[in-house]
């Protein structure tokens, strides 16, 4: 199992637009082989930003790489560079190989 995360620092004045953009988007992940689950997370609020994260679980790192090279990925990110930037800097990517998974 592989977890792919992106962290976003969002200035308070952009928070609602950022949330609306994420929550209102068309989701293409379900059509990609190896996709397990996705979570959109809100973290701590600081004076100058609110921390958000996208958390995606994949069957393997290879499945995640397949997503990044897929037509669905290109469609999902097609307008990313042409929209008003809503974050303080670029997202910070973190990828994790799952060494232990305990479920209820």
Q: How would you summarize what this structure contains?
A:
This protein is of the alpha+beta class and 104 residues long. The protein is 22% helix and 34% strand. The mean pLDDT is 92.
Structure description:
It contains 3 helices and 4 strands. With 104 residues, the chain is an alpha+beta fold. It has one domain: Alpha-Beta Plaits (2-Layer Sandwich), CATH 3.30.70. Strands 2-3-1-4 form a 4-stranded antiparallel sheet.
Q: How many helical stretches? A: 3
| CA radius of gyration | 15 Å
Q: In the CATH hierarchy, what is the architecture at level 2?
A: 2-Layer Sandwich
Classify the beta-strand content into a percent band: 25-35%
Globally, the shape reads globular
Helix content: 10-25%
Strand order of the largest sheet: 2-3-1-4
What is the CATH fold-level name?
A: Alpha-Beta Plaits
Structural class comes to alpha+beta
What's the CATH class, please? Alpha Beta
What is the helix/strand order?
A: EHEEHHE
Ends apart, CA distance between termini: 17 Å
Number of beta-strand segments: 4
